[in-house]
Automatic annotation (TrEMBL):
Keywords: Hydrolase, Membrane, Mitochondrion, Mitochondrion outer membrane, Necrosis. It is found in: Mitochondrion outer membrane. This is Serine/threonine-protein phosphatase PGAM5, mitochondrial. The keyword Metal-binding does not apply. It comes from Phaethon lepturus (White-tailed tropicbird). Its EC number is 3.1.3.16. One of its GO terms (cellular component) is mitochondrial outer membrane. PANTHER family: PHOSPHOGLYCERATE MUTASE-RELATED (PTHR20935), SERINE_THREONINE-PROTEIN PHOSPHATASE PGAM5, MITOCHONDRIAL (PTHR20935:SF0). It is an enzyme of class 3 (hydrolase). It catalyses: O-phospho-L-threonyl-[protein] + H2O = L-threonyl-[protein] + phosphate; O-phospho-L-seryl-[protein] + H2O = L-seryl-[protein] + phosphate. Belongs to the phosphoglycerate mutase family. BPG-dependent PGAM subfamily.
Length: 226
């Protein structure tokens, strides 16, 4: 959606000369800024909860969120926004992190809710959702990728720093798609609770992975992957 050539009307010509002003119009559509995307996995939560509202953060999970918030604040970056999954564990993680980043607006979205993005290859024996779940969740998670992971708008002048608080499956799928890896390999990665994954999207559309699932800022006894 951000390729300059796709953003202009090639049939439009200069009214005076009848010639296309392709070069100048392309330049007008080119991104100038870099986007920094920080994908945060929610903290440890109560696995015994039946409904989403019951799957609240554990005391350790709240500690993890505090540590993640402190780490993000220590980077000294001017964060533009925090977009988070509307699920309880992601919302609670966001609330704790945001205390360390006062003034940064929070936006909730259903697109980032946990789910089954695509059937993994190779398959695993311990996790086999119904086939219909891939169709229901996969389309939504792919929509989240297309909606949030792209080069900066041409009007954006300065580099941006955005936080997305969501779930392991969503983050792993987004990383594969952003790096143009086969998305079926998403389950080969493992992410700790409260971990930080940092993607960089350059103006030319190239994407780099700075960190994947970083929890080096947490004491070893605070690290979990539930």
């Amino acid at each position: 959606r951000r390729e300059p050539l796709a953003l202009i009307n090639l049939k439009k010509k200069n009214e005076e000369t009848g010639e296309e002003e392709l070069a100048s119009r392309l330049d007008h559509c080119k991104a100038k800024a870099t986007r920094h995307i920080f994908l945060i996995r929610h903290s440890q939560y109560n696995l015994d909860g039946r409904a989403d509202k019951d799957r609240t953060l554990t005391p350790l999970g709240r500690e993890q969120a505090e540590l993640t918030g402190h780490r993000l604040a220590s980077l000294g970056l001017k964060f533009d926004q925090i977009i988070h999954s509307s699920m309880t564990r992601a919302t609670e993680t966001t609330e704790i992190i945001s205390k360390h980043l006062p003034g940064v607006r929070k936006i909730s979205t259903d697109l980032l809710r946990e789910g089954a993005p695509i059937e993994p290859d190779p398959p695993v024996s311990h996790w086999k959702p119904e086939a219909v779940q891939y169709y229901e969740d996969g389309a939504r998670i792919e929509a989240a990728f297309r909606n949030f992971i792209h080069r900066a708008d041409a009007k954006q002048e300065e580099d941006s720093y955005e936080i997305f608080v969501c779930h392991a499956n969503v983050i792993r799928y987004i990383v594969c798609r952003a790096l143009q890896f086969p998305p079926e390999g998403w389950l080969r990665m493992s992410l700790n609770n409260g971990s930080i994954t940092h993607l960089v999207i350059r103006p030319n559309g190239r994407v780099a992975l700075r960190t994947l699932g970083d929890t080096g800022f947490m004491p070893p006894d605070k690290i979990t992957r539930t």
